[in-house]
Amino acid sequence: MFRRASRLLLSLVMLTSGAVIGVGATAGTAHADSCYTWNRTLSEGSSGSDVTQLQIRVAGWVTSGERLSYDGQYGARTAAAVKKFQAAYGLSADGVAGSATFSKIYSLQDADCTPVHFTYAELNKCNSDWSGGAVSAATAKSNALKTMWKLEAMRHALGDVPLTISSGFRSRACNNAVGGSATSRHLYGDAADLVGSPSLCRLAQQSRTHGFSEILGPGYPGHNDHTHVAFDPSPYWSAPTCGI
């Protein structure tokens, strides 16, 4: 909360003074951010690591069953996701990521780049260093960040209701302790089990339009008490009680 308040104060100071920090003549941002700062406007045809950073934050704004690649290429799918992000937050939906889009992103993230409504701790109740899974610790943590941004989009689409995560990343030891599948996406850091409200079926249904390719919920064996969402290279949805 303090970090977000500090960024807001910094923004107001710069707006009143006319100062712009870390921005060149082609900049698409109004102020620097303690997590990541975009220094140019991005649109179709742009490429680079700054596009990848944008893709991470808008990957939850896609159509049903669609997954946005984190490839650093600003193509038609990225533009469409940006448009949906812009429309969702009351911005001009032109698919071009400029100062207004970046300012909204800055307001949605903390200094460690996690979205404001989620933390790494929520996505890792197994250990402190993200080790012991099916991928390196760095990859597991990176996957968890991508998952959180999809959940942030889903949370907003549901009316900014809190989402409760009962399980995220698991090492093999943690996964075995709870009887998880040997091929569980939790081992990769890109899965989250959701409980509480909204209803499990509502969560399963909504998650289809936020970039999740593996959705398991009520009616699927072992999933009557939670809705599981994840990124899976081989998409699979099953929540029979919910009509999925």
* Total beta-strand segments: 5
Rg, alpha carbons: 18 Å
Number of helices: 8
| Envelope shape | globular
Summarize the main sheet. Answer: 5 strands, mixed
GO molecular function: zinc D-Ala-D-Ala carboxypeptidase activity
EC number: 3.4.17.14
Signal peptide: 1-32
Protein name: Putative muramoyl-pentapeptide carboxypeptidase
Description:
By secondary structure, the chain is α+β, with helices and mostly antiparallel strands. The chain folds into 2 domains: 37-109, Orthogonal Bundle (Muramoyl-pentapeptide Carboxypeptidase, domain 1); 116-243, Muramoyl-pentapeptide Carboxypeptidase, domain 2 (2-Layer Sandwich). Helix content is 36%, strand content 8%. The chain contains 8 helices and 5 strands, in the order H-H-H-H-H-H-E-H-E-H-E-E-E. It has a 5-stranded mixed β-sheet with strand order 1-2-4-3-5, covered by helices on one side. It is globular and about 50 Å long. It starts with a helix and ends in a 6-residue tail after the last strand.
Topology at a glance:
Elements: H1 2-17, H2 49-58, H3 76-88, H4 99-107, H5 120-123, H6 137-157, E1 164-167, H7 172-177, E2 191-195, H8 200-207, E3 214-216, E4 227-230, E5 236-238
Parallel strand pairs: 3-5
Antiparallel strand pairs: 1-2, 2-4, 3-4
